[in-house]
Amino acid sequence: MSVLDMKLDRSFDVFDADRDGRLEKSDVVGVSDRLAESLGVAADDVAELRDSLEDLWNTVFAKMDRDGDGAVDRQEFRASFRKRIITDQNRIWDRIRRMSNAWTQLGDRDGDGMLSREEYTSLLHGMFRLPRETFDEAFRHLDVNGDGQLSRDEISAAMKEYYTSEDHTARGNQFFGRL
Known about the structure:
Elements: H1 3-15, E1 22-23, H2 25-39, H3 47-64, E2 72-73, H4 74-87, H5 89-107, E3 115-116, H6 117-128, H7 132-142, E4 149-150, H8 152-164
């Protein structure tokens, strides 16, 4: 299995909230509700994130559903994501960046425009319910300049590397924790 396939499988798994092996709209858009709950904020506070996830579902994920069953299985996800990155890169990255900016803003509790280790760990733990230690380790790899914070540029670069790089040593591979 290639490095990119391993990362796509990890991404699939973190979005598959009910662990049924299928991504449905509720899995993807539900990330915003899980985050609101974990941060103790009202659903309205995550409206921008919810809107960006719904847009991502409608324009990217739903088109991966090759058999028309209303869900995306792992194979559909892997094959379609690879194809979309190559053929639709600018539009997909705009949508991913919008989602990333929305959740970064929510996680930035002190309003400094950056994510501290604690903010990053809390944010991803709240969204994907993976152990905090997973993201604590990831933070060390993603903090390129070693300042103890992640900028939007560092986050965006890490996400792009995660979804495109076949290099096993790429920093962005750590976005959802160790492979």
